[in-house]
Amino acid sequence: MNPQQVELALRKQRLQFDAERQRETLVAGFERIESVLDIVDRARDQARGLRDHVPLLSALAFAIVLLRPRLALRVARRAWFGWVLYRRLGRGLDPLIGFLRRFAA
């Protein structure tokens, strides 16, 4: 074999090794994303389950309001503040959430 063909064969082999290493890195990244998506799917399924039991949850909330009105008011105030804060910031939280996701990975 002439030296140019040997050099091309070595370059091809290095590129194949680099591609394999990149594939492994990509698969590892997908595994992390998949675990996060599994958690999101479970949370969504649980929220769907709560929708199936709205009368029970409403009765429970009503009982808490009757038995512990201060606690109910405090929780309602915090929830309202959180909702207003979320609505005001809106998409402004997206960069922060993206940063936290990259930092956690």
Structure, briefly:
With 105 residues, the chain is mainly α. It has 4 helices and no strands.
Task: Please give a handful of descriptors for the protein shown.
105 residues, mainly alpha, 4 helices, 0% strand
Can you walk through the features of this model?
This protein has 105 residues and is an all-alpha fold. It has a domain at 1-52. 91% of the residues lie in helices and 0% in strands. The longest helix is centred in the first third of the chain and has 50 residues, at 3-52.
**Strand tally, please?**
0
Terminus-to-terminus distance:
47 Å
- Class derived from helix and strand content: mainly alpha
Q: What is the residue-averaged pLDDT?
A: 85
Helix content: over 70%
Largest sheet: none
